[in-house]
Amino acid sequence: AAERTLSIIKPDAVAKNVIGQIYARFEAAGLKIIAARMTHLSKNEAEQFYAVHKDRPFFKDLVDFMVSGPVMIQVLEGENAIAKNRELMGATDPKKAEKGTIRADFADSIDANAVHGSDAPEAATIEIACFFPALSIYSR
Ligand code: CMP
């Protein structure tokens, strides 16, 4: 079914100037960018966005990294968008990511792992609402 997912190009990949290369992969896979904006997250925004991880040992490093520079945030729409985006991204840890995936090609570490993508439909709905009011999403 046509689905939406939230994608974030993280500070490491923005700094590497590979937004366009990552967008090209979304497009080639049939994922349409229906909302997008660049922003530099505040500590509060990053903590809220990753609230599900607040008790994990990596939470502080994750938040520190996510506020270290601007990010590019987008809503992707397409058939099985959530799974498709996760396939394009590869494993969370770039050392374990399959060849040809975004993380294998552009990521340096489990924190500086180039991209985020929603992992389930409920998460996608919540994450999209975090950054985009319905009126700024341009689906046909
Ligand atoms: P992301 O998909 O953005 O969701 C949470 C992030 O936490 C994850 O990508 C990683 O960048 C980061 N992280 C750091 N350590 C871990 C870990 N041990 N397990 C999962 N995520 C981790």
From TrEMBL:
**Cross-referenced InterPro entries, in alphabetical order?**
NDK-like_dom (IPR034907), NDK-like_dom_sf (IPR036850), Nucleoside_diP_kinase (IPR001564), Nucleoside_diP_kinase_AS (IPR023005)
GO CC: one term? cytoplasm
For this chain's UniProt record, which GO biological process terms are given? Answer: CTP biosynthetic process; GTP biosynthetic process; UTP biosynthetic process
Instruction: Report the locations given in the UniProt record.
Output: Cytoplasm
Q: Which UniProt keywords apply?
A: ATP-binding, Cytoplasm, Kinase, Magnesium, Metal-binding, Nucleotide metabolism, Nucleotide-binding, Phosphoprotein, Transferase
Q: Where is the Nucleoside diphosphate kinase-like domain?
A: 2-139
Q: Which domain of life is it from?
A: Bacteria
- PANTHER family (UniProt xref): NUCLEOSIDE DIPHOSPHATE KINASE, NUCLEOSIDE DIPHOSPHATE KINASE DDB_G0292928-RELATED
Family note: Belongs to the NDK family.
HAMAP family for the chain: NDP_kinase
Protein purpose: Major role in the synthesis of nucleoside triphosphates other than ATP. The ATP gamma phosphate is transferred to the NDP beta phosphate via a ping-pong mechanism, using a phosphorylated active-site intermediate.
Record-given protein name: Nucleoside diphosphate kinase
The organism encoding this protein is Nitrosomonas mobilis
Q: What lineage is this protein's organism placed in? A: Bacteria, Pseudomonadati, Pseudomonadota, Betaproteobacteria, Nitrosomonadales
